[in-house]
Amino acid sequence: MSIGNLKTEGNKGNNFPWQYKVLVGLQGIIDELQNGSDVTIVAPLGVQSSCSDAVSVALCENQYKRDITPVIEVVSGADGSIANQIYSISFASNGTADALISFDGGVTYVALPAGTTVNMDASGLANMYPGNLFYWDTTTNAGSSLIITYNA
């Protein structure tokens, strides 16, 4: 291990002091990694960063655990929505007529033909759909019915 021109710079033919300091520094890094010392990150906390500035972390099993409540509903002749935030949802049109579903808080509805299923998943850690985003209508078209399953 050498750096610089050993004949004209530094310690003139002896690079031991620099080499020794590098080795001591590397040993310090190894010791810290093996020690498992707690580290305090002071920035950027709570601020979304670009990937090049982000700090990678590994979550332990208790840092991000949520209890999930699975729900199933069979609706016919009713309108409704889900007030809770949800991780995933499925609409299965099991009636004889189109059911109406909305993914924008009930502003616009899409006809879900009988025999059709739509699955939505927020995909990923901490991703959830907001409450009152999904609406349905099984009153407009006589014979429409839905099986709705979701994880809240």
Note down, in words, how this protein is organized:
With 152 residues, this protein is of the alpha+beta class. The chain folds into two domains: 1-57, no CATH class; 70-151, Sandwich (Jelly Rolls), CATH 2.60.120.10. The protein has one helix at 16-35; strands at 70-76, 79-81, 88-93, 99-102, 110-112, 117-121, 135-137, 145-151. The model has no long low-confidence stretch (mean pLDDT 83).
Q: Return the domain count.
A: 2
C-alpha end-to-end distance: 59 Å
Strand content: 25-35%
Fraction in helix: 10-25%
CATH topology of the largest domain: Jelly Rolls
CATH class of the largest domain: Mainly Beta
The Rg value, from CA coordinates, equals 30 Å
* Total number of strands: 8
Instruction: Give the overall shape, derived from the CA principal axes.
Output: rod-shaped
Strand order of the largest sheet: 1-8-3-6
Label the CATH architecture of the largest domain.
Answer: Sandwich
Report the sheet with the most strands, covering strand number, pairing sense and barrel closure.
4 strands, antiparallel
Q: What class, by secondary structure content?
A: alpha+beta
Succession of helices and strands: HEEEEEEEE
List key phrases describing it.
2 domains, single chain, four-stranded antiparallel beta sheet, 8 strands, alpha+beta, rod-shaped, 152 residues, 1 helix, Jelly Rolls
Blueprint (SSEs and pairs):
Layout: H1 16-35, E1 70-76, E2 79-81, E3 88-93, E4 99-102, E5 110-112, E6 117-121, E7 135-137, E8 145-151
Antiparallel strand pairs: 1-8, 2-7, 3-6, 3-8, 4-5, 4-7
